[in-house]
Structure formats: structure tokens, C-alpha cells
Amino acid sequence: MKQNIDLQCHTTASDGLLTPKELVGLALKKKLKAIAITDHDSVNGIDAALKAAKGKDIEIVKGVEISCDDPGFVDTHILGLFVNHKDKTLNSLLKKAKEYRERQKKGIINKFKKLGFKVSYEEVKALARGEIGRPHIAKIVLKNNPDKVSSIEDIFNRFLSVGKKAYVERRNKISVKDAIKAIHSAQGLVFVAHPGVYNYFDIDKFIKYFIKNRGDGIETYYDYSASRHHTSFAQNNKINKKFRKIAKRYGLLETGGSDFHGRPDQILGKLKVPFSVLENLRKKAK
């Protein structure tokens, strides 16, 4: 029997819809052998996930996904796996990231207000239960303004994606170099998350920049077929194969995850990431 894993999952500790305990329960139901808890700029869901998985037939990989901005490479996500989530350097960086994230999200909400939408920070914060993400803002915008927008996808396409009317760049930014240093300080491995998403800059140039800053690998198994990416199953395989070739060319490690947030368009376990990916990473983990 094939054993599958998912090394990029989000919980209510950031912008996921399931609590760590609920996510572990779903992963067990789907017969996954391992999942990574990789919340945005947060490691607050890890302990609860470890507790929920104790004594169960599933491995919890401790991770994090850090949002970065560098000149020419806006809104990139750097994934850390096998981190010591108690590491002081990592947590110091995440504290800064949380402050920057909150400031940015307040800016986005204010832009929506100026555009005539009904939305408040208090409503979004109550929905999030943890770190605020753009999906939380989109949900409140959709709920309060059904006459102006048709779906979450519509909101992202018209307002929330990079460069759109309500998008706000972070004034204070975490650099890729700083994210890599912090993850390495926490004995973790560092990856470019979902490299096929970055169609607004030269991805090959970014990967070289990432390697120059001592990054370890890239995500070569990813579900680009989620609704916001408009990607077919065949296209999805083609994109992943492209990045597997790039990983081989540069001698990079490979990881894989669905970027599961619990949205209706996502099915945990749909993306088949082989257990061998985890076994290989374990050998490289510090």
C-alpha cells in the first residue's frame, strides 16, 4: 500500500480553517502517514498538533511558512521544515513578521473601505481566531458585500492579488536571507514554497537568488489545480515536473504539500506526495 504525506498544511494558528487537532483528525481519516504544520509566520499550532497526534499512526513535521519581500521578488513564501519551534532566533523573527503582517492587513482592510466595501478589522480578527490572512479578509468582504463580489476567487482576482486595487505591500519586510538564517538557526531545512505561483517575476532568477542565500530546496509536489490558479490536472503535473528538473539541475532537495487551508476547493490527501520524500528529507535534517 502506498503511503502518502502532506508537508504543507495550515491551521487556525494562521489562516487555516481547522484547528491543529481537527487537522490531525482529518489527516488520520485520510490515512496520511505524515503532515507538516506550516502556518504563516507562526509556530503556535505545533504543540497542539503534536498533542493530538500522540500515540496515533501519524508523524507531525514541525514547520513554518515565512512571508518575504525582496527587491524584485515581492510576496514570496519560504518554507521551513524540521524546525525547533522553540528557537529564540526563529521566534524573534516571527514576532516581527506578525507585527508587519497585522499592519499590512489593516492597510488592506482600509483600502477595501475606501473602495466602498463594508468590512472591519474586528470582524476579520474574530473570524481568523489566529493570524489574519487575506482569505479571512476576502470572506468578510464576500459576506458583507454580496452585491459587489461573487466569490473568494473573484475578490482575489480583482482586489487581493499582488498589484490589485486592495493589495498592500508590507512596509517593513522580512528578507529571504533573514528567513533562511532564522530557519537554519532552528535546525530546519529551507524551501521555496509553491514556485509555480510566482508568475509576476523571473522564477529561475529567484531560485538562483535563493541558492545564493544558502536555501536547501524547492517544493516539487504542489496542487496548483486549486480554483485560484485555474490549472488542470495535466498542467499541474507539467509544472511539478518542471521544478523537479530544476531541483535535479541545481542539486536541491525536494518537498511536497497541498498548501491545505481547509477551503471547499481543497481535499486533503488528493495530492499524492510519496513517503520517500519525507524519508530523504529526514536524512538531510540537522
Q: Care to give the gist of this entry?
A:
Helices cover 42% and strands 17% of the residues. The protein is of the alpha/beta class. The protein has two domains: 204 residues, Alpha-Beta Barrel (TIM Barrel), CATH 3.20.20; 55 residues, no CATH class.
What is the CATH superfamily label of the largest domain?
Answer: Metal-dependent hydrolases
**Strand share of the residues?**
15-25%
Distance between the ends: 30 Å
How many separate structural domains? 2
Low-pLDDT ranges: none
The averaged pLDDT comes out at 92
Indicate the radius of gyration in whole angstroms. Answer: 18 Å
Total count of strands: 8
Helicity range: 40-55%
Q: Could you give the order of the helices and strands?
A: EHEHEEHHHHHEHEHEEH
CATH fold node name of the largest domain: TIM Barrel
What quaternary form is this? single chain
The CATH C-level class name of the largest domain: Alpha Beta
Produce the secondary structure layout:
Layout: E1 4-9, H1 20-29, E2 34-37, H2 46-53, E3 59-70, E4 73-81, H3 88-114, H4 121-128, H5 134-144, H6 152-160, H7 176-185, E5 189-192, H8 203-212, E6 217-222, H9 233-250, E7 253-257, E8 273-274, H10 275-284
Parallel strand pairs: 1-2, 2-3, 5-6, 6-7
Antiparallel strand pairs: 1-8, 3-4, 4-5
